[in-house]
């Protein structure tokens, strides 16, 4: 008897599927189960066979069973075959997770884990750092977005998948990993002591000039919205003259959280639209009670701002609620959905692309800031933040 598929009632879109070293996974999700039937009914691969002929795979296993000089774990072979099948689809954001990997994937977003605190991607067949988490060992060691990882503990990474890199770089608190990095065509070795990382999704403050500063490091479910709403209410009560929204290094999170954050500024406006091919699957709009409506706002973005961060930045920008300062964002414009498999494990599969309110898909292109400002090595060494300084000056009208 065939078992029905078990499908989570969430739609996910990953920022960077990148496997997160420290483990902040960048993905976005919503709870719009009513859309699932629409997506599944639109079979984009209708010409693909309904079933694959796996006889040749059995032939390989038969040879392994009789000829292989080593121990065989059938479960590992099956998981490996599933991973290979999904990877052969050619989409880096469609991934098969074992049960343990799925547990880690969802647990990491909540903000407590052990590792170095950096997000990883693969570009042009090279492993690169996308962003580092605030206060993490990776950030303290000086890792930067765009750094290429040539070696891990002196092992060449040229042929590694993201999952392989993550398994080598992650580890228990107190242990050390050595990374060989390339930055500006110069190679350097950096040893990093792994640690337990607690990463609050929202921090905020009001400076002496009565300007609110709101930093969102990820879009977690529940606490990001509640903490940001608390900050917005405090900003409103104090009558701030403007707000700086810092989305730098934010790899993403739940789509519902992104929608709710945009709703702090927007009243009944389009936040994001999802399309499968040319067919619109869903249009998400903001709420009707924006605490910060009309408050001058500048959003800070960089190459580590991805997915949900890009959705918020694009929504505020396209609707005229904020100017963008920094450098071009990551460029992650596709939507993923998690499906539980009856045989175990989970499949995170790309089901659509998302578009800004102005109808732009930013995949691989990112969002260009209104005011380009970069942060140089000297700025980092001397504790300067020219991007934030520029945002504050714009809000203050200087």
Short description:
This protein has 398 residues and is an alpha+beta fold. 27% of the residues lie in helices and 30% in strands.
Description:
By secondary structure, the chain is an alpha+beta fold. Helices cover 27% and strands 30% of the residues. It is built from 11 helices and 21 strands. The chain has helices spanning 36-41, 55-67, 74-87, 99-108, 137-140, 162-169, 223-238, 255-262, 308-318, 377-381, 386-396; strands spanning 6-14, 27-30, 95-97, 112-115, 118-123, 126-132, 148-152, 155-156, 176-183, 186-193, 195-198, 202-206, 211-216, 242-246, 270-276, 279-285, 297-301, 323-326, 334-340, 346-355, 371-372. Strand 5 (118-123) and strand 6 form a beta hairpin. Helix 7 packs parallel to helix 8 and helix 8 (255-262) packs parallel to helix 9. The N and C termini lie far apart (70 Å). Residues 1-41 have low confidence and may be disordered.
Main sheet: strands, sense, barrel: 7 strands, antiparallel
Coarse shape: globular
| CATH architectural type of the domain at 200-333 and 354-396 | Alpha-Beta Complex
Q: How many helix segments? A: 11
- CATH superfamily name of the domain at 200-333 and 354-396? 2-enoyl-CoA Hydratase, Chain A, domain 1
List unreliable stretches of 5+ residues: 1-41
CATH topology call of the domain at 200-333 and 354-396: 2-enoyl-CoA Hydratase, Chain A, domain 1
β content, as a range? 25-35%
CATH class of the domain at 200-333 and 354-396: Alpha Beta
